[in-house]
Amino acid sequence: MHKLLWITFILIILSPFGCGKTSDSVTSPDVDAPAISNLNISPLANGAEVSWLTDEPATSKVIYGESLKVRLVNDEIIGYTLSHRVKLTGLKAGITYYITAKPKDMFGNEADPPPQIFHLPSTQPPEPLVITGLSVVPTTDSAQITWLTNHPATTQVFYGETRGPGLSTTLASQLTTSHTVNLTGLDPDTTYYFKVESRDSTAELAFEEGDFRTNESTSTTPLTITNLSTHPTINSVQINWTTNRPATTKAFYGKTTGLGLSTTLASQLTTLHTVNLTGLNPDTTYYFKVESRDSTAELAFEEGDFRTKESVPPTPLTITNLSTNPTVNSVQINWTTNRPATTKAFYGKTTGLGLSTTLASQLTSSHTVNLTSLEPDTFYYFKVESEDANSILAQQEGSFKTTAQSEDFPLLKIVPDMKEVKVGDRFELEVRIEKVTGLFGAAMSLRFNPGIIEFEKSESGELLGKDVLAIAMEEVAGEINLGITRKAGQDEVNGSGTIVRLEFKAIGRGETDVSIPKGDLTLRNSQGELIQAFDRIAIHNGRVVVK
């Protein structure tokens, strides 16, 4: 192309094609507009793409409109190039447009070619599927890959340590514009190559390739899972495992090896891990994977399976052979169950009950409870209760009446029969006898819980008077063996009164009986003879409540 010669000078040209370049001797100015070639207009969705070439670097500018009088201008692309590409948007389908390319060189010379006639078809080609925003966030042994598509499409990743065929994630067929894939089980400090793929509803494919490197492992020893165990029931399971250092807790599970369900991540770091899966189907095989991550995000996982138990309606737990054997101040209650179960009884003077025995948790089919410190000739209500290994409960109610005390029987009792104290309190209990004849000496054992109260001292009561020869005390854990007698030559005593007073100290919270076993009681006259047979002595024991 002929250029007008004017003056020779040194010119430094700055362009997008390189750094500053010095030409030895050039002429200026250039007064010719850029020459345009290979002009092409291609339809897009709601628009068009205009492309062309110029014989010298120039800007990219397009004027267009529905007539030659009303013309619009695209945003001029500032930057000098030989290859030009401009997208026009917002065009109307089925309308004819007049489009003119107007490149301008660096000397301000602008081309003014004749307009090109372009008709935007009524049926426009679909916008191509495009992937953008591809990013990778690697950890020591995993990576999260995310990308966007310009319209909904599927999600899948292919990856490996080489560029050839390798591993792939399961195709996520749900169509979406936001895509996330987590790759796990990767090796630390390793380069991986990958390709992301998405297909839209027309099966058009878009893909992008890349690579990443996992983080270097800072752990001196790998995170490991041990002691993995399952404990299934009919519709649930407890999964337990341990890790060699504190880590998170999560489980994935399902009826197929694809799993599909998961627990909520327990982010607290621990070495003992437990998850409970509920709402499962009876007699069904489930597959699972447990995962734990330590503070460095290192991952450990183990897979397994289990089968829930068969749903069989349990046989009801039943109570039979319920019987009572009351005495003046006690009762023995017996019953049996059709399979081993626990033992407990509730009782009281009204149907509200109010008292209970301690639960005997050992499972047995034959059950016995002994209720003591009851009142003579009194009606009592009770309920017995048993629970089997499957937490199936059986109960049965009943009643009994203690036998009346014969007017001829002596009555030995702890006074008061109920004592409430606080820890650290010292308190006194009396052993009192009523309706006795010919009493000269007595021997007995008192039993109690040594973890709740402890014995401190004793003194004789007024019934045997001041003519007491001795009070012999022998104390072992939870038991006092007591002997008391009048001096030789003194008369025997009759009637009612206190034999001995005992002082205790409360040392622990709880309840304890203070009882005198009938077999450990003897009442003798001055000749050393028993004045009453065991079965002709009534005993009312006491109870102490420490709060």
Describe this entry's structure for a reader.
With 547 residues, the protein is an all-beta fold. Helix content is 0%, strand content 61%. The chain is built from no helices and 39 strands. It has strands spanning 7-15, 18-28, 36-44, 47-60, 62-65, 72-73, 77-89, 96-101, 116-119, 131-138, 143-160, 167-168, 172-183, 191-199, 205-213, 225-232, 236-254, 261-262, 266-278, 285-293, 299-307, 319-326, 331-348, 355-356, 360-371, 379-387, 393-401, 411-415, 418-421, 426-439, 441-447, 453-460, 468-476, 479-486, 493-506, 510-514, 522-524, 538-540, 542-546. The strands form nine sheets. Strands 10, 11, 12, 13, 14 and 15 form a six-stranded antiparallel beta sheet that branches. Strands 16, 17, 18, 19, 20 and 21 form a six-stranded antiparallel beta sheet that branches. Strands 22, 23, 24, 25, 26 and 27 form a six-stranded antiparallel beta sheet that branches. Strand 16 and strand 17 form a beta hairpin. The protein starts with 6 loop residues before the first strand and ends with a strand. The relative contact order is 0.07. Residues 1-26 have low confidence and may be disordered.
What fraction of the residues are assigned to beta strands by DSSP?
Answer: over 45%
Tell me the structural class.
mainly beta
Kindly provide the radius of gyration, computed on alpha-carbon positions and rounded to a whole number of angstroms.
Answer: 50 Å
The largest sheet is: 6 strands, antiparallel
Task: Give the mean pLDDT.
Answer: 86
Give the helix level as a range of percent. under 10%
Alpha-carbon distance between the two ends: 114 Å
By DSSP, the count of extended strands is 39
Alpha plus pi helix count: 0
What overall geometry do the principal axes of the alpha carbons give? Answer: rod-shaped
**Which residue ranges are poorly predicted, with pLDDT under 50 across at least 5 consecutive positions?**
1-26
